[in-house]
Amino acid sequence: MSPVDRRLFGVTEGVRRYMGVTIALGLASALAVIAGASVLAGIVNRVFLDGAGPESLAGALATLGVIYAARGLFEWARSIAAHRTAADVKRTLREQVMRAVLTQTSKGRSAGSGELAVVASSGIDALDAYFSRYLPQLVLGALIPLLAIIWVATVDPLTAVIIVITVPLIPVFMMLIGNYSDRATRARWRTIVRLGDALVETLRGLLTLEVYRAGAGRLDRIRRLSDEYRKQTMATLRIAFLSAFVLELVATMSVAVIAVAVGIRVVSGDLDFEPAFAILILAPEVYAPLRKAGSEFHAAMDGVEAARSAFDVLEEPPTTVVAGHRSPSPPVAGAPLISFSNVTYRYPAPGEAEGTVVLGSVDLHVAPGERLAVVGPSGAGKSTLLRLILGFDHPGGGSVDIEGVPLGSLDLSGWRSRIGWVQQEPFLVAGTVLKNVRLGAASSNADDAAAALELVGAADLVPRLGEVIGERGAGLSHGERRMVTLARAVVRSPDVLLLDEPTAGIDSATQLRIAESFERIAAGRTVLTIAHQRVLVDLADRVVGIDHGRIVAPTARELR
Fold first, then answer.
1. How far is CA 340 from CA 80, 214, 367, 388, 406, in A?
2. What stretch of H or E contains 101?
3. Domain 338-552 has CATH 3.40.50.150
4. Dist. CA 331–CA 406, nearest whole Å
5. Phi, psi at 504, each rounded to 5°
6. Domain positions in the chain
7. Are 161 and 234 in contact (CB under 8 A)?
8. Chain-centre distance of CA 138, in angstroms?
9. Are 13 and 37 in contact, with CB atoms under 8 Å apart?
10. What span, in angstroms and rounded, lies between the C-alpha atoms of 24 and 17?
11. Which residue, 8, 176, 471, 558, is the most exposed by fewest CB within 10 angstroms?
12. What are the tens digits of pLDDT across the range 206-259?
């Protein structure tokens, strides 16, 4: 595993500034270490060999105090810069990951919800150790030995040679241990990702598992993964303790070799006491940064592994062709608002090179202001039509055009701003009813939300705009959730309404309320409705059927 992931330095401009500050402060700290050792050795020499009194040492002691205070100040400044940079990187990386997740359109993404949850939470949090402890120690580990060798070479070349020979031993052992630790860290990361996926899947399907009494198997899986993660964590800790022991041993033996060599030459008279004592003070400081970097390696690698997964999400090529930087092409006069021309789409399927055919050679044209109903059996490809219109998926063949312009050449955000979309499964967030309606248009206010609710026939929800609901609309009935999503779709005054089975799973009374408000909702708009219920089919200007991915005539059963 590389000790530095260069991609992290491109997350924000502050990272490069931080590295500059770290190098500058590391250089200053290294000079302070050498100066402190030299001044302290001079003080000891004057006290024990020259018999100097306290009054003659005042200047030297003051200098020593300033040096150590400056070193502390350098470390404090570096720590402040490190934590601010880590916070900036974590915030920016989380925003980029979530933005990528929200805009990626490939259904075949490798990252599951559990992995994304782990990456965006505890994984990215581990970058604190990477920026605040590991990187600074790497910088100090490069600067202090280099400056120490230069200084020592001026007073004792033999010791400088010993340092040159022994210092590289620590990085060598770090690389050997790092390669082994890399495999253990990756295995542990894969396990915690699988554990996160298992937890998310279990929570999503909790009611189904309870009804079918299938929870025991899921709990066994979570228990096995938790136990596996525990064992891998303990194995990683064993590696960390072993590496700390090896690095301490190498550093201690290196310092011992220097001490013996210096001591022999001091006794023989080949080396003066003052430089010899300065070398002995400096020797532990030469190896300390590298030793500390080795001990911080394992904590920092969790953050690096999480960042690697985050970059995998960010660097995954999209499946859509979006030319957001191109100038929007003008609409073609007289062209249909939405046009499918020989469109094919295959759903990515594991183990299948080409995937499963969802749409095959679809030709469909929707005129401006038309109310079109699409009917057909479940799995026929109806919802895929809407996903293609929204630009969430890209056709494998053919073309989806908007006003005669290929959708791939349009600015998707601009096109989507013209659409009101009602999903098959209502999506609501924890918060007030007003907050959920205003998701459709951030610029809307309470009056706009109330007008939208009245427009869709949900005037009874207007007094409840300030009511707080739970996740997925807990506190509202299923019909009320449908009404809120309809109001959300119309509050932005869209040109196009895409309704994916808006009356599915609700009682007949609520279905009638939606049908009665349909004329008001659809007035002046193009409406494409995926429908099973006759109550909505009867309100359409035109009805088309779809079966096995092909446009067909609707059957009598579907029109009942």
1. 57, 43, 12, 9, 10
2. helix 58-103
3. no
4. 10
5. -70, 135
6. 6-315, 338-552
7. no
8. 25
9. no
10. 11
11. 471
12. 655 665 566 677 788 888 888 888 888 888 778 777 777 888 888 889 889 989
CATH annotation of 6-315: 1.20.1560.10
At residue 304, φ and ψ (nearest 5 deg) are -65, -40
**To 5 degrees, how large is the angle CA 364–CA 370–CA 376?**
50
Strand pairing report for 397-402 and 405-406:
antiparallel
**Structure tokens, 393:** 């998926």
Query: Collapsing DSSP states into helix, strand and coil, what is residue 532?
Result: coil
Strands (E), 12-110: none
Q: What is the pLDDT of residues 342-376, one digit of tens each?
A: 888 887 654 455 667 778 888 889 888 889 988 88
Phi, psi of 329 (to 5 degrees): -75, 145
Which has the closest alpha carbon to 545: 533, 559, 535, 534?
A: 559
pLDDT tens track for 283-326: 888 888 877 777 777 666 766 777 777 777 676 654 443 333 34
- In this structure, are residues 340 and 546 in contact, taking their beta carbons and an 8 Å threshold? no
- Tracing tokens 């859509």 back to the chain, one arrives at 320
Directed axis angle between helix 58-103 and helix 13-48, to 10°?
160
Give the length of the chain.
Answer: 560
